[in-house]
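User: Sorry, what's this?
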Amino acid sequence: MNQSTIQLNLYTGKGQRLSDRNMSMPLCDWQPDEASAYDADKGLRDAVNVAISLGQPLLITGEPGTGKTQLAYSIAHELEIPGPFVFNAKTTSIAKDLFYQYDTLRHFQDAHTPGHQLEKQEYVQYNALGKAILLATPKQDLLNLQPDIYKHIPEAFISEKPTRSVVLIDEIDKAPRDLPNDILNEVLEMSFLIHETETWHKASHQFRPIMIITSNSEKNLPEPFLRRCVFYHIDFPNDERLEAIVSNHFGDLRFLKLAIAHFQSIRKMKLAKKPATAEFLTWIMALQSLIRDTELDFNHLTPEQKDIIQLSYSILVKSKEDLDFLEQQLTETNS
């Protein structure tokens, strides 16, 4: 995660243009959640390695913001393989959507355009699992397809040698109940049919993608699906793990232990939504930029520090009630 400087004098709310103040619009150089800085605990590392070895999907649960989604990016980064190819599950998703989509509307429009040569493959868009299966298919096998099929396959998914890749199916618990079982059948076979062109894509089981499937546990998933997955639950990090995570992103910070203790005390409060790891990292970045001195005691803040901490709470909480509650607690502690 890049270290950015937060400037509190850019927007004045009084109509004063930047050029009138001899200032210019800064670039945003903050890139959150870099894959190279991901820090998985031993249990998660073991679960990933088991899933890779067995060729089974890895089902990940945990609080929002604990790194479920970012895990897929970390795996692709470390193993230096393509992906992750992401599919965000929706209430309307069906199994076919994970492999491809057919642009029926554009096909209809082109069919009524004089002189347009219709080739059905032109309207196929490959999605996450479709891309993974294409990359797992030797180029020669793709060349053996009909010419009008091959020429519309994106070059990025034609590989001289087949390769494994990473597929992320995010928030599968939002999808209809039948979808998890349906996609596993297709992945086990490493094949799918494009119905509109009557084209089968099939690849070797040896190049099965590494599938990371996340769930927020909003509803129960089918038992047959669960039996065919490796499972891991990401617990919220303890103090030691939070220190390691922050060190990966920012290096050593003198106020870190105090900030962690304050953050953990906030999570224990009766808030509508507890802040998660992602918000914690953003909060630490903000504190690092805004707190210029190295001494920081949340129970004995200077007036300037108190103002900064109150400002920073808008990163941690997401409702007026929670924000008011935190500000009240801070005032009472430092009164």
